[in-house]
Known about the structure:
Chain A: Keywords: Acyltransferase, Phosphopantetheine, Phosphoprotein, Transferase. The structure holds 2 protein chains of 2 kinds. Chain A is of the alpha/beta class.
Amino acid sequence: xxxxxxxxxxxxxxxxxxxxxxxxxxxxxxxxxxxxxxxxxxxxxxxxxxxxxxxxxxxxxxxxxxxxxxxxxxxxxxxxxxxxxxxxxxxxxxxxxxxxxxxxxxxxxxxxxxxxxxxxxxxxxxxxxxxxxxxxxxxxxxxxxxxxxxxxxxxxxxxxxxxxxxxxxxxxxxxxxxxxxxxxxxxxxxxxxxxxxxxxxxxxxxxxxxxxxxxxxxxxxxxxxxxxxxxxxxxxxxxxxxxxxxxxxxxxxxxxxxxxxxxxxxxxxxxxxxxxxxxxxxxxxxxxxxxxxxxxxxxxxxxxxxxxxxxxxxxxxxxxxxxxxxxxxxxxxxxxxxxxxxxxxxxxxxxxxxxxxxxxxxxxxxxxxx
Amino acid sequence: xxxxxxxxxxxxxxxxxxxxxxxxxxxxxxxxxxxxxxxxxxxxxxxxxxxxxxxxxxxxxxxxxxxxxxxxxxxxxxxxxxxxx
Lengths: 370, 85
Protein backbone atom coordinates (compact mmCIF):
# COMPACT_ATOMS: atom_id res chain seq x y z
CA UNK A 1 0.00 0.00 0.00
CA UNK A 2 2.88 2.36 0.73
CA UNK A 3 3.86 2.41 -2.94
CA UNK A 4 0.40 3.40 -4.02
CA UNK A 5 0.23 6.02 -1.32
CA UNK A 6 3.50 7.48 -2.54
CA UNK A 7 2.09 7.77 -6.03
CA UNK A 8 -0.91 9.47 -4.54
CA UNK A 9 1.12 12.01 -2.62
CA UNK A 10 3.37 12.88 -5.54
CA UNK A 11 0.50 13.63 -7.93
CA UNK A 12 2.57 13.36 -11.08
CA UNK A 13 1.96 16.24 -13.44
CA UNK A 14 1.34 14.61 -16.75
CA UNK A 15 1.05 16.66 -19.92
CA UNK A 16 -2.67 15.97 -20.17
CA UNK A 17 -3.12 17.30 -16.64
CA UNK A 18 -2.84 20.87 -17.84
CA UNK A 19 -5.95 22.83 -18.51
CA UNK A 20 -7.20 22.91 -22.07
CA UNK A 21 -10.27 25.04 -22.50
CA UNK A 22 -12.88 23.39 -24.61
CA UNK A 23 -11.57 19.91 -24.18
CA UNK A 24 -14.62 17.76 -23.45
CA UNK A 25 -14.76 16.14 -20.06
CA UNK A 26 -15.13 12.43 -19.76
CA UNK A 27 -17.85 11.02 -17.53
CA UNK A 28 -17.05 8.88 -14.50
CA UNK A 29 -19.68 7.26 -12.31
CA UNK A 30 -18.83 6.95 -8.60
CA UNK A 31 -20.65 4.50 -6.32
CA UNK A 32 -20.51 4.98 -2.53
CA UNK A 33 -20.26 2.12 -0.05
CA UNK A 34 -20.75 1.28 3.62
CA UNK A 35 -21.04 4.43 5.71
CA UNK A 36 -22.97 6.34 3.04
CA UNK A 37 -26.30 4.81 4.06
CA UNK A 38 -28.86 7.27 5.40
CA UNK A 39 -32.38 6.71 6.75
CA UNK A 40 -34.88 7.02 3.88
CA UNK A 41 -32.13 7.51 1.33
CA UNK A 42 -33.58 7.72 -2.19
CA UNK A 43 -37.13 7.19 -0.88
CA UNK A 44 -38.17 10.57 -2.29
CA UNK A 45 -36.91 9.50 -5.71
CA UNK A 46 -38.48 6.06 -5.31
CA UNK A 47 -41.85 7.74 -4.73
CA UNK A 48 -41.43 10.27 -7.55
CA UNK A 49 -39.86 8.30 -10.37
CA UNK A 50 -41.57 5.07 -11.49
CA UNK A 51 -38.58 4.00 -13.59
CA UNK A 52 -36.18 4.34 -10.65
CA UNK A 53 -38.68 2.52 -8.43
CA UNK A 54 -38.90 -0.30 -10.96
CA UNK A 55 -35.12 -0.69 -10.96
CA UNK A 56 -34.92 -0.80 -7.16
CA UNK A 57 -37.86 -3.22 -6.98
CA UNK A 58 -36.14 -5.45 -9.52
CA UNK A 59 -33.12 -5.77 -7.21
CA UNK A 60 -35.21 -6.26 -4.06
CA UNK A 61 -37.30 -8.97 -5.77
CA UNK A 62 -34.13 -11.01 -6.27
CA UNK A 63 -33.91 -11.39 -2.50
CA UNK A 64 -37.44 -12.77 -2.12
CA UNK A 65 -38.93 -12.55 1.37
CA UNK A 66 -35.76 -10.95 2.70
CA UNK A 67 -36.04 -8.33 -0.03
CA UNK A 68 -39.56 -7.51 1.16
CA UNK A 69 -38.29 -7.18 4.74
CA UNK A 70 -35.48 -4.93 3.53
CA UNK A 71 -38.00 -2.75 1.66
CA UNK A 72 -40.26 -2.50 4.74
CA UNK A 73 -37.36 -1.40 6.92
CA UNK A 74 -36.11 1.03 4.26
CA UNK A 75 -39.50 2.78 3.98
CA UNK A 76 -40.25 2.61 7.71
CA UNK A 77 -39.62 5.29 10.32
CA UNK A 78 -39.09 2.50 12.85
CA UNK A 79 -37.16 -0.25 11.04
CA UNK A 80 -37.04 -3.63 12.76
CA UNK A 81 -33.40 -4.00 11.78
CA UNK A 82 -31.54 -0.67 11.97
CA UNK A 83 -30.24 0.75 8.71
CA UNK A 84 -26.64 0.77 9.92
CA UNK A 85 -26.79 -3.00 10.37
CA UNK A 86 -24.96 -4.53 7.43
CA UNK A 87 -28.03 -6.70 6.67
CA UNK A 88 -29.78 -3.48 5.69
CA UNK A 89 -26.99 -1.07 4.75
CA UNK A 90 -25.23 -3.40 2.30
CA UNK A 91 -28.21 -4.59 0.22
CA UNK A 92 -29.84 -1.15 0.17
CA UNK A 93 -26.65 0.61 -0.88
CA UNK A 94 -26.18 -1.98 -3.60
CA UNK A 95 -29.76 -1.54 -4.81
CA UNK A 96 -29.72 2.28 -4.77
CA UNK A 97 -26.25 2.55 -6.33
CA UNK A 98 -27.08 0.10 -9.09
CA UNK A 99 -30.49 1.66 -9.81
CA UNK A 100 -28.97 5.16 -10.09
CA UNK A 101 -26.10 3.96 -12.27
CA UNK A 102 -28.53 2.03 -14.47
CA UNK A 103 -30.57 5.23 -14.78
CA UNK A 104 -27.58 7.08 -16.27
CA UNK A 105 -26.76 4.23 -18.65
CA UNK A 106 -30.40 4.16 -19.75
CA UNK A 107 -30.14 7.86 -20.61
CA UNK A 108 -27.71 6.69 -23.28
CA UNK A 109 -24.53 7.74 -21.49
CA UNK A 110 -21.53 5.52 -22.05
CA UNK A 111 -19.26 6.37 -19.10
CA UNK A 112 -15.50 6.64 -19.47
CA UNK A 113 -14.94 5.19 -16.01
CA UNK A 114 -16.80 3.44 -13.22
CA UNK A 115 -15.37 3.52 -9.69
CA UNK A 116 -17.05 2.20 -6.57
CA UNK A 117 -16.17 2.49 -2.89
CA UNK A 118 -16.46 -0.79 -0.99
CA UNK A 119 -19.83 -2.39 -1.84
CA UNK A 120 -20.23 0.29 -4.52
CA UNK A 121 -17.67 -1.63 -6.54
CA UNK A 122 -20.10 -4.55 -6.85
CA UNK A 123 -22.76 -2.23 -8.28
CA UNK A 124 -20.14 -0.84 -10.71
CA UNK A 125 -19.13 -4.37 -11.71
CA UNK A 126 -22.71 -5.27 -12.63
CA UNK A 127 -23.06 -2.14 -14.79
CA UNK A 128 -19.74 -3.01 -16.44
CA UNK A 129 -21.01 -6.51 -17.22
CA UNK A 130 -18.62 -8.47 -14.98
CA UNK A 131 -21.51 -10.28 -13.36
CA UNK A 132 -25.24 -10.28 -13.93
CA UNK A 133 -27.58 -8.43 -11.58
CA UNK A 134 -28.96 -11.80 -10.51
CA UNK A 135 -25.51 -13.21 -9.71
CA UNK A 136 -24.52 -10.01 -7.90
CA UNK A 137 -27.68 -10.14 -5.79
CA UNK A 138 -26.83 -13.74 -4.88
CA UNK A 139 -23.28 -12.68 -4.02
CA UNK A 140 -24.59 -9.86 -1.83
CA UNK A 141 -26.96 -12.19 0.03
CA UNK A 142 -24.20 -14.76 0.53
CA UNK A 143 -21.70 -12.11 1.63
CA UNK A 144 -24.12 -10.45 4.04
CA UNK A 145 -25.05 -13.81 5.58
CA UNK A 146 -21.40 -14.63 6.29
CA UNK A 147 -20.39 -11.12 7.38
CA UNK A 148 -23.33 -10.88 9.79
CA UNK A 149 -21.80 -13.82 11.66
CA UNK A 150 -18.33 -12.22 11.78
CA UNK A 151 -16.98 -10.82 15.04
CA UNK A 152 -18.21 -7.26 15.73
CA UNK A 153 -16.00 -4.25 15.32
CA UNK A 154 -15.93 -0.67 14.24
CA UNK A 155 -14.41 1.88 11.93
CA UNK A 156 -12.94 5.28 12.71
CA UNK A 157 -12.42 8.14 10.27
CA UNK A 158 -9.33 10.21 11.09
CA UNK A 159 -8.21 13.50 9.55
CA UNK A 160 -4.53 12.69 9.04
CA UNK A 161 -2.26 11.23 6.36
CA UNK A 162 -1.68 7.46 6.33
CA UNK A 163 2.04 7.89 6.94
CA UNK A 164 1.36 9.87 10.12
CA UNK A 165 -1.16 7.33 11.41
CA UNK A 166 0.58 4.05 10.72
CA UNK A 167 3.11 4.33 13.58
CA UNK A 168 0.28 5.21 15.99
CA UNK A 169 -1.95 2.21 15.30
CA UNK A 170 -2.38 -0.22 18.14
CA UNK A 171 -2.24 -3.96 17.58
CA UNK A 172 -5.17 -5.34 15.59
CA UNK A 173 -6.08 -1.93 14.16
CA UNK A 174 -5.52 -1.48 10.42
CA UNK A 175 -6.04 1.11 7.72
CA UNK A 176 -9.38 0.09 6.23
CA UNK A 177 -9.72 2.89 3.71
CA UNK A 178 -7.65 5.72 2.29
CA UNK A 179 -10.21 8.24 1.08
CA UNK A 180 -7.99 11.26 0.57
CA UNK A 181 -4.63 12.76 1.53
CA UNK A 182 -5.94 13.50 5.03
CA UNK A 183 -8.94 11.18 5.18
CA UNK A 184 -8.20 7.71 6.50
CA UNK A 185 -10.60 5.16 7.98
CA UNK A 186 -9.24 2.72 10.54
CA UNK A 187 -10.85 -0.63 11.30
CA UNK A 188 -10.62 -3.23 14.02
CA UNK A 189 -12.36 -4.99 16.87
CA UNK A 190 -13.98 -2.62 19.34
CA UNK A 191 -11.48 -2.76 22.22
CA UNK A 192 -8.29 -2.17 20.20
CA UNK A 193 -10.04 0.43 18.04
CA UNK A 194 -11.21 2.32 21.14
CA UNK A 195 -7.66 2.28 22.53
CA UNK A 196 -6.26 3.66 19.29
CA UNK A 197 -9.01 6.28 19.14
CA UNK A 198 -8.14 7.46 22.65
CA UNK A 199 -4.48 7.80 21.69
CA UNK A 200 -5.28 9.69 18.48
CA UNK A 201 -7.61 12.07 20.30
CA UNK A 202 -4.96 12.63 22.98
CA UNK A 203 -2.68 13.77 20.19
CA UNK A 204 -5.32 16.23 19.02
CA UNK A 205 -6.33 14.40 15.84
CA UNK A 206 -9.91 14.79 14.65
CA UNK A 207 -11.72 11.44 14.71
CA UNK A 208 -15.23 10.35 13.86
CA UNK A 209 -16.79 6.90 14.18
CA UNK A 210 -18.21 5.52 10.93
CA UNK A 211 -21.75 4.19 11.05
CA UNK A 212 -21.02 0.49 11.18
CA UNK A 213 -20.95 -2.28 13.75
CA UNK A 214 -18.58 -4.35 11.62
CA UNK A 215 -14.87 -3.89 11.03
CA UNK A 216 -15.07 -3.90 7.26
CA UNK A 217 -11.83 -3.92 5.29
CA UNK A 218 -9.88 -5.50 8.12
CA UNK A 219 -8.75 -9.01 9.08
CA UNK A 220 -11.66 -9.15 11.56
CA UNK A 221 -13.98 -10.07 8.67
CA UNK A 222 -11.45 -11.97 6.54
CA UNK A 223 -12.64 -15.47 7.39
CA UNK A 224 -16.29 -14.55 6.91
CA UNK A 225 -15.54 -12.83 3.59
CA UNK A 226 -13.59 -15.84 2.31
CA UNK A 227 -16.67 -18.05 2.77
CA UNK A 228 -18.13 -16.39 -0.34
CA UNK A 229 -15.34 -17.83 -2.47
CA UNK A 230 -16.99 -21.17 -3.19
CA UNK A 231 -20.14 -19.53 -4.55
CA UNK A 232 -18.07 -17.07 -6.57
CA UNK A 233 -16.09 -19.91 -8.13
CA UNK A 234 -19.27 -21.17 -9.74
CA UNK A 235 -20.37 -17.67 -10.84
CA UNK A 236 -19.69 -16.60 -14.41
CA UNK A 237 -17.40 -13.57 -14.28
CA UNK A 238 -16.81 -11.78 -17.57
CA UNK A 239 -14.32 -9.10 -18.61
CA UNK A 240 -15.83 -5.62 -18.16
CA UNK A 241 -17.29 -3.94 -21.26
CA UNK A 242 -16.97 -0.51 -19.63
CA UNK A 243 -13.76 0.86 -18.04
CA UNK A 244 -14.04 -0.51 -14.49
CA UNK A 245 -11.68 1.05 -11.97
CA UNK A 246 -11.12 -0.50 -8.59
CA UNK A 247 -10.80 0.96 -5.13
CA UNK A 248 -8.75 -2.11 -4.22
CA UNK A 249 -6.09 -1.86 -6.93
CA UNK A 250 -6.37 1.94 -7.24
CA UNK A 251 -6.46 1.62 -11.00
CA UNK A 252 -8.23 0.24 -14.05
CA UNK A 253 -9.06 -3.43 -13.58
CA UNK A 254 -7.51 -5.84 -16.04
CA UNK A 255 -9.67 -8.58 -17.51
CA UNK A 256 -7.75 -11.15 -15.45
CA UNK A 257 -8.42 -9.27 -12.21
CA UNK A 258 -12.08 -8.75 -13.04
CA UNK A 259 -12.76 -12.46 -13.56
CA UNK A 260 -10.78 -13.63 -10.51
CA UNK A 261 -13.18 -15.01 -7.84
CA UNK A 262 -10.59 -14.50 -5.08
CA UNK A 263 -10.44 -10.79 -5.95
CA UNK A 264 -14.17 -10.38 -5.34
CA UNK A 265 -14.29 -12.69 -2.31
CA UNK A 266 -11.49 -10.78 -0.60
CA UNK A 267 -13.00 -7.32 -1.00
CA UNK A 268 -14.87 -6.98 2.32
CA UNK A 269 -11.61 -7.59 4.19
CA UNK A 270 -9.21 -5.72 1.89
CA UNK A 271 -8.26 -2.05 2.31
CA UNK A 272 -10.08 0.44 0.07
CA UNK A 273 -7.77 2.85 -1.73
CA UNK A 274 -10.49 5.12 -3.03
CA UNK A 275 -8.45 8.31 -2.68
CA UNK A 276 -5.54 7.03 -4.77
CA UNK A 277 -7.98 5.53 -7.31
CA UNK A 278 -9.84 8.83 -7.67
CA UNK A 279 -6.56 10.70 -7.90
CA UNK A 280 -5.42 8.53 -10.80
CA UNK A 281 -8.71 9.07 -12.61
CA UNK A 282 -8.59 12.84 -12.18
CA UNK A 283 -4.92 13.06 -13.09
CA UNK A 284 -5.53 11.28 -16.40
CA UNK A 285 -7.86 13.93 -17.77
CA UNK A 286 -10.78 16.26 -17.12
CA UNK A 287 -13.90 14.48 -15.89
CA UNK A 288 -17.47 15.10 -14.92
CA UNK A 289 -17.81 12.89 -11.84
CA UNK A 290 -21.34 11.68 -11.19
CA UNK A 291 -22.00 10.13 -7.79
CA UNK A 292 -24.62 7.42 -8.17
CA UNK A 293 -25.58 6.89 -4.55
CA UNK A 294 -26.58 8.62 -1.33
CA UNK A 295 -24.96 11.25 0.89
CA UNK A 296 -22.51 12.98 -1.51
CA UNK A 297 -19.53 11.64 0.46
CA UNK A 298 -17.53 10.83 -2.67
CA UNK A 299 -18.55 14.14 -4.26
CA UNK A 300 -17.24 16.01 -1.22
CA UNK A 301 -13.95 14.09 -1.38
CA UNK A 302 -13.70 14.96 -5.07
CA UNK A 303 -14.40 18.66 -4.45
CA UNK A 304 -11.27 18.87 -2.31
CA UNK A 305 -9.14 17.38 -5.12
CA UNK A 306 -7.15 20.08 -6.97
CA UNK A 307 -8.55 18.97 -10.33
CA UNK A 308 -12.10 19.69 -9.17
CA UNK A 309 -11.32 22.70 -6.97
CA UNK A 310 -9.61 24.33 -9.97
CA UNK A 311 -12.67 23.77 -12.16
CA UNK A 312 -10.82 21.50 -14.60
CA UNK A 313 -13.03 18.60 -13.54
CA UNK A 314 -16.43 18.78 -11.86
CA UNK A 315 -18.40 16.66 -9.43
CA UNK A 316 -22.18 16.29 -9.21
CA UNK A 317 -24.37 13.93 -7.19
CA UNK A 318 -27.65 12.22 -8.07
CA UNK A 319 -28.95 12.48 -4.50
CA UNK A 320 -28.80 15.37 -2.00
CA UNK A 321 -26.35 15.37 0.90
CA UNK A 322 -29.27 14.48 3.15
CA UNK A 323 -32.34 12.48 2.14
CA UNK A 324 -35.42 14.51 1.48
CA UNK A 325 -38.97 13.75 0.56
CA UNK A 326 -40.70 15.98 -1.96
CA UNK A 327 -38.82 17.34 -4.95
CA UNK A 328 -35.26 17.49 -3.63
CA UNK A 329 -34.19 14.03 -4.80
CA UNK A 330 -35.83 14.16 -8.25
CA UNK A 331 -34.42 17.69 -8.64
CA UNK A 332 -30.90 16.39 -7.93
CA UNK A 333 -31.32 13.72 -10.62
CA UNK A 334 -32.61 16.32 -13.10
CA UNK A 335 -29.60 18.53 -12.36
CA UNK A 336 -27.26 15.64 -13.15
CA UNK A 337 -29.22 14.98 -16.34
CA UNK A 338 -28.73 18.63 -17.35
CA UNK A 339 -25.02 18.51 -16.49
CA UNK A 340 -24.62 15.47 -18.73
CA UNK A 341 -26.61 17.16 -21.47
CA UNK A 342 -24.31 20.21 -21.24
CA UNK A 343 -21.35 17.88 -21.72
CA UNK A 344 -22.97 16.68 -24.92
CA UNK A 345 -23.35 13.18 -23.53
CA UNK A 346 -27.06 12.96 -24.27
CA UNK A 347 -26.90 14.16 -27.85
CA UNK A 348 -28.71 11.18 -29.29
CA UNK A 349 -31.69 11.97 -27.10
CA UNK A 350 -32.26 15.62 -27.97
CA UNK A 351 -35.84 15.12 -29.05
CA UNK A 352 -36.74 13.49 -25.76
CA UNK A 353 -35.05 15.98 -23.45
CA UNK A 354 -38.19 17.72 -22.15
CA UNK A 355 -40.10 14.50 -21.54
CA UNK A 356 -37.14 12.73 -19.98
CA UNK A 357 -36.28 15.68 -17.78
CA UNK A 358 -39.86 16.06 -16.66
CA UNK A 359 -40.07 12.42 -15.62
CA UNK A 360 -36.57 12.42 -14.14
CA UNK A 361 -35.36 10.78 -17.32
CA UNK A 362 -35.24 7.19 -18.36
CA UNK A 363 -38.93 6.42 -18.12
CA UNK A 364 -39.39 7.15 -21.79
CA UNK A 365 -37.64 3.91 -22.54
CA UNK A 366 -35.20 5.69 -24.83
CA UNK A 367 -31.78 4.12 -24.91
CA UNK A 368 -28.61 4.81 -26.77
CA UNK A 369 -28.63 6.27 -30.25
CA UNK A 370 -31.96 7.24 -31.78
CA UNK B 1 -10.56 38.20 21.31
CA UNK B 2 -11.91 39.94 18.23
CA UNK B 3 -14.76 38.43 16.28
CA UNK B 4 -14.12 35.86 13.60
CA UNK B 5 -14.60 37.25 10.07
CA UNK B 6 -15.47 35.37 6.90
CA UNK B 7 -11.89 35.85 5.69
CA UNK B 8 -10.58 34.36 8.95
CA UNK B 9 -12.90 31.43 8.43
CA UNK B 10 -11.78 30.91 4.84
CA UNK B 11 -8.20 30.75 6.00
CA UNK B 12 -9.19 28.22 8.68
CA UNK B 13 -11.12 26.14 6.16
CA UNK B 14 -8.04 26.05 3.92
CA UNK B 15 -5.86 25.08 6.88
CA UNK B 16 -8.27 22.30 7.83
CA UNK B 17 -8.18 20.90 4.29
CA UNK B 18 -4.40 20.64 4.43
CA UNK B 19 -1.83 21.41 1.78
CA UNK B 20 -2.44 18.23 -0.22
CA UNK B 21 -6.01 19.19 -0.81
CA UNK B 22 -7.44 22.26 -2.37
CA UNK B 23 -10.80 23.88 -2.10
CA UNK B 24 -12.75 26.47 -4.04
CA UNK B 25 -13.50 29.13 -1.43
CA UNK B 26 -13.28 32.25 -3.59
CA UNK B 27 -16.15 34.69 -3.76
CA UNK B 28 -19.13 34.92 -1.47
CA UNK B 29 -19.42 31.54 0.21
CA UNK B 30 -21.10 32.67 3.45
CA UNK B 31 -24.39 31.02 2.60
CA UNK B 32 -23.01 28.14 0.52
CA UNK B 33 -23.67 24.83 2.27
CA UNK B 34 -20.52 23.13 3.55
CA UNK B 35 -21.51 20.05 1.57
CA UNK B 36 -21.30 22.07 -1.66
CA UNK B 37 -17.87 23.34 -0.62
CA UNK B 38 -16.69 19.74 -0.20
CA UNK B 39 -16.61 19.78 3.61
CA UNK B 40 -17.86 16.46 4.95
CA UNK B 41 -18.30 15.66 8.62
CA UNK B 42 -14.65 14.78 9.16
CA UNK B 43 -13.41 17.93 7.42
CA UNK B 44 -15.79 20.00 9.57
CA UNK B 45 -14.51 18.33 12.74
CA UNK B 46 -11.02 19.33 11.64
CA UNK B 47 -12.27 22.86 11.01
CA UNK B 48 -13.77 22.99 14.51
CA UNK B 49 -10.49 21.70 15.94
CA UNK B 50 -8.52 24.49 14.25
CA UNK B 51 -10.98 27.11 15.58
CA UNK B 52 -10.77 25.61 19.08
CA UNK B 53 -6.98 25.72 19.06
CA UNK B 54 -6.66 29.23 17.69
CA UNK B 55 -9.45 30.89 19.64
CA UNK B 56 -9.43 28.87 22.82
CA UNK B 57 -13.10 28.01 22.53
CA UNK B 58 -14.68 24.62 23.01
CA UNK B 59 -16.89 23.46 20.16
CA UNK B 60 -18.83 20.25 20.62
CA UNK B 61 -18.65 17.37 18.14
CA UNK B 62 -22.36 17.61 17.37
CA UNK B 63 -22.07 21.30 16.50
CA UNK B 64 -22.54 20.62 12.81
CA UNK B 65 -25.82 18.80 13.21
CA UNK B 66 -27.46 22.22 13.07
CA UNK B 67 -24.86 24.30 11.26
CA UNK B 68 -24.82 23.98 7.50
CA UNK B 69 -23.11 27.13 6.21
CA UNK B 70 -20.03 29.26 6.92
CA UNK B 71 -22.28 32.14 8.05
CA UNK B 72 -24.03 29.92 10.60
CA UNK B 73 -20.65 28.73 11.87
CA UNK B 74 -19.40 32.34 12.13
CA UNK B 75 -22.49 33.31 14.12
CA UNK B 76 -22.07 30.36 16.47
CA UNK B 77 -18.36 30.89 17.08
CA UNK B 78 -18.81 34.64 17.58
CA UNK B 79 -21.60 34.12 20.08
CA UNK B 80 -19.35 31.73 22.02
CA UNK B 81 -16.48 34.24 21.83
CA UNK B 82 -18.59 37.17 23.02
CA UNK B 83 -20.04 35.09 25.87
CA UNK B 84 -16.48 34.26 26.96
CA UNK B 85 -15.28 37.86 26.72
